[in-house]
Input
Amino acid sequence: MKNIFFKSAFAVTLGALIFTTSCNNDDDAPNDTIQIQLTEVGTANSGEAVAGSDVHLDAEIMASARIANVIVEIHNETDASIPEITQEFSDYNGQINANFHQHIEIPADYPAGGYHLHLTVIDANGNSETAEADLIILAATDNIQVVFHEVGEGNSGQVAAGSDLHLDAGITSVHAIAGIELEIHNEADPNVAEIVHSFSNYNGQTNADFHEHVDIPADQPAGEYHLHLTITDDEGNSFTSESELIITN
Output
């Protein structure tokens, strides 16, 4: 009888131990996990974007359950009155490991400043994970930059009527150049005819060395003039750089 009792007690103890161990193993089982590695925020991972263009965003997503949704949200760091940019992407639904690559449009009138970017991944079981990054948004005018190197021979700021105006400038554009227009007008007398020239030979470039000799009519009145060089890109953005010019007889 004692042997039977001891065997029964041992069986009950062993069963309880197995049950407890099984429960502990269940408790230790890993939950669904999501891992996000941001590999590019802004072109060449610059952390910058220009209003009126897009921010390049690339990330590696690794999830133990299938992806159900991906959300990108961009908000201003200091001014809560600026509307957030929010986009959802279903392109990756059903995948476990995904290479997230998107271009997020930034409105042309979006204020320049420091922003915060959230990339949130939600899986089919309702779990979520968010990766964050800082983002600098530059003003739309930064789409195009112009630096004058020469206005008038030797950068004198002068030209004689009947000769040509030496004009040299460096142009940098986020988008391809679609057109350049030069306009010269008299400061004091609006009745003096303007000098206007258009240039298409730089179209398609994003970094251009603008170098032209512009004819000044022989009968152009002497005086103080204002020069406008306007660059338009293939997204419709435009930027005008200005300089003073004196026309002599």
Confidence is low (pLDDT under 50) at residues 1-29. Residues 34-138 form a domain with the Immunoglobulin-like fold (CATH 2.60.40.3880). The chain has two domains: 34-138, 143-248.
